[in-house]
Write a sequence for this structure.
């Protein structure tokens, strides 16, 4: 609706929670970048020009019965909660879609879905750019948003012309934009791993060694069960269920050689459907080690099995450890061990008898940022173990063997090539696995 002659234009305002500039046009808030920057003021001018443009240049008004963007998003979300599930658990894609849906709803939720075109797609994409997301992440989110409207077209909720217009928006090209590129995952040096391992419970130590020997993904190590391992040949085969490329019709096999077999054998002496590497067992090992290392006599102070006065007064139930690790908890345990193995220098490090919370209160904001940078530089994560293994295999056996061991097979591999690759993987496992 056009403004009256005496009505003031929409104000250029600061959104304090995010530090971004915001303009309210009608009943919709539009975020236009970091507050006070030249780019955000330029976007503000463009918005004013569009807001005051003649009606003839605006998009035609859809019918009153047209479905809105928020209705499309809600319908797709109901579908996604059923579709993006593996082994009874929601996949990570569901979390990524949740953020995309939130941003599209914030900007254009009340708009008719038929009017969602390339300019509005770019406006949502600009939100991700303003947050500092890497270029590949922005492109992935753009494809997710387009996928939502593709699904809506397939369900006959919106006309196909909407999808056709959205597919005309290309992804951001490397070197053609100012967005950062994510750093490549580098292999972790074995000497760094060896310095970290002593500060972990035995269960996690064996998870790391098994991953180094086999090149398995972190999630594959976490969910390994005795019933998943075929021990009928000299090289065992771990057939992974619910792996990341299963929906493409691919099969993932982790080949287990003699050294990995010796490491894994004690963990196979449990029920076929129980995980080999138990998180509850690792927590118990950590607590037992802490109990043995305590300096205060057991008769004094708190001891294992004794609840503090605060615990007695609390009505909250005591948390019990999870049965199974997941990639996040596995990574978190390694990061904690890295912080112990690679102590930050004074005044950033923990002092004797000082808790992490006390250190956080002691450090200034600048020192906390310096500590974050130190920890980021001296921490490593489980995915780097795969790259370490892949680098070693490639040096000794070539690129093709590394691709087979790491499970990077092409989708159109024939049965003959698949058999040849399997034998190559078994040979590698016999010699260094």
């Amino acid at each position: 609706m056009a403004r009256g002659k005496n009505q003031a234009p929409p104000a250029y305002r600061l959104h304090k929670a995010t530090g971004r500039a915001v303009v309210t046009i009608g009943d919709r808030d539009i975020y236009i970048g970091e507050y006070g920057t030249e780019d955000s003021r330029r976007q503000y001018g463009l918005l004013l020009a569009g807001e005051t443009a003649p009606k003839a240049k605006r998009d035609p008004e859809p019918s009153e019965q047209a479905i809105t963007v928020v209705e499309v998003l809600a319908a797709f979300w109901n579908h996604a909660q059923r579709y993006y599930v593996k082994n009874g658990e929601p996949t990570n894609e569901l979390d990524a879609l949740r953020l995309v849906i939130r941003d599209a709803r914030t900007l254009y939720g009340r708009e008719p879905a038929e009017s969602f075109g390339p300019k509005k797609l770019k406006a949502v994409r600009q939100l991700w750019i303003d947050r500092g997301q890497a270029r590949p992440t922005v492109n992935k989110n753009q494809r997710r948003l387009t996928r939502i409207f593709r699904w809506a077209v397939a369900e006959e909720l919106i006309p196909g012309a909407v999808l056709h217009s959205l597919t005309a928006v290309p992804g951001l090209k490397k070197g053609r934009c100012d967005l950062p590129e994510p750093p490549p995952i580098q292999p972790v040096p074995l000497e760094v791993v060896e310095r970290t391992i002593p500060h972990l419970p035995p269960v996690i130590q064996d998870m790391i060694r098994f991953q180094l020997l086999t090149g398995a993904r972190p999630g594959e190590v976490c969910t390994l069960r005795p019933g998943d391992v075929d021990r009928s040949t000299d090289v065992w085969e771990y057939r992974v269920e619910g792996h990341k490329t299963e929906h493409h019709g691919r099969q993932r096999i982790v080949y287990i050689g003699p050294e990995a077999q010796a490491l894994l054998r004690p963990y196979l002496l449990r029920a076929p459907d129980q995980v080999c590497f138990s998180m509850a067992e690792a927590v118990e090992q950590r607590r037992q080690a802490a109990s043995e290392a305590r300096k205060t006599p057991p008769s004094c102070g708190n001891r294992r099995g004794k609840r503090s006065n605060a615990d007695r007064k609390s009505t909250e139930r005591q948390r019990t450890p999870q049965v199974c690790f997941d990639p996040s908890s596995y990574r978190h345990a390694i990061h904690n061990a890295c912080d112990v193995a690679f102590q930050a220098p004074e005044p950033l490090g923990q002092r004797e008898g000082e808790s992490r919370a006390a250190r956080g209160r002691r450090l200034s904001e600048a020192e906390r940022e310096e500590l974050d940078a130190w920890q980021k530089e001296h921490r490593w994560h489980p995915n780097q173990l795969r790259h370490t293994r892949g680098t070693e295999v490639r040096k000794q056996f070539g690129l093709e063997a590394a691709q087979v061991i790491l499970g990077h097979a092409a989708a159109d591999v024939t049965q003959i090539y698949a058999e040849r690759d399997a034998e190559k993987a078994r040979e590698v496992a016999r010699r260094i696995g």
About this structure: The mean pLDDT is 82. Strands lie at 13-15, 20-25, 28-34, 85-86, 89-90, 229-230, 236-239, 253-256.
